[in-house]
Every structure is written in structure tokens, then in C-alpha cells.
Amino acid sequence: MKDSNYIKIYTGSLVTTRRVIHELDKIGISAVVKEQSETGLISDVFGGNRDYQEVFVHKDELEAATKVIDGLTPELEA
User: Fold this and answer.
1) Are 42 and 52 in contact (CB under 8 A)?
2) Is residue 73 part of a domain?
3) Record's superkingdom (predicted)?
4) What does the DSSP assignment read for 19-70?
5) What percentage of the chain has pLDDT greater than the value 90?
6) 70 in a domain, yes or no?
7) Is-contact 68 23, C-beta < 8 A?
8) Angle 66-73-68 (CA atoms, 0-180°, nearest 5)?
9) Which domain holds residue 49?
10) Has residue 27 been placed in a domain?
């Protein structure tokens, strides 16, 4: 998403990104999700995670979204 008005605020598994999106939605922020599904061969060979997602928000919503992420970080890392 180069040269766009969106900024990546979180990268994680499907489950954790769904939680982040839900919390953002509760305060009126519509996040954009980019799925990163690598080919099975590359993931298997290099030990990568096939199912991770990136969460982006509009630059104008960055401050509020960052507060949500900061509040969730201890819970997501547990």
C-alpha cells in the first residue's frame, strides 16, 4: 500500500487480527485487511506462517487506532 493514505498498524494471525478489527470497529474505525498467504512450499521450507494478516487504517484515524492496539497488546501477547 505504498503511496496511500493507509498505514499498517498490526500484523498477526487470523484470530488476533479479527480481535483487533472488532475493537477498531467498536469505535467507528473501518480497518483494511491484507491477507498474506504464502505458498505452502515456501512456508513449509522456511518455517513461515501461512495465515497472517496485516491491518491498515486511514492516516486520520492512526492516533485512535494506536490507542486500541496499545490497550490490546498485553492480551494479544498472552
Assistant:
1) no
2) no
3) Bacteria
4) HHHHHHHHTT---EEEEE---HHHHHHHT--SSEEEEEEEGGGHHHHHHHHH
5) 54
6) no
7) yes
8) 30
9) 6-65
10) yes
User: From the centroid of its chain, how far is CA 23?
Assistant: 12
Q: Cell numbers 486511514 correspond to what residue?
A: 58
Q: What is the number of domains present in the chain? A: 1
Q: What confidence tens digit (pLDDT) does each residue in 16-42 have?
A: 999 999 999 999 999 999 887 655 545
Mean pLDDT of the chain: 82
Residue 78 lies in a domain: no
Spatial CB neighbours of 49, under 8 Å, sequence gap ≥ 6: 13, 43
State yes or no: pLDDT of 59 exceeds 70.
yes
Report residue 3's pLDDT band, with 50, 70 and 90 as the boundaries: low
Whose CA is closest to 65, among 34, 19, 3, 20?
A: 20
Bridge partners for 53 per DSSP? 12, 35
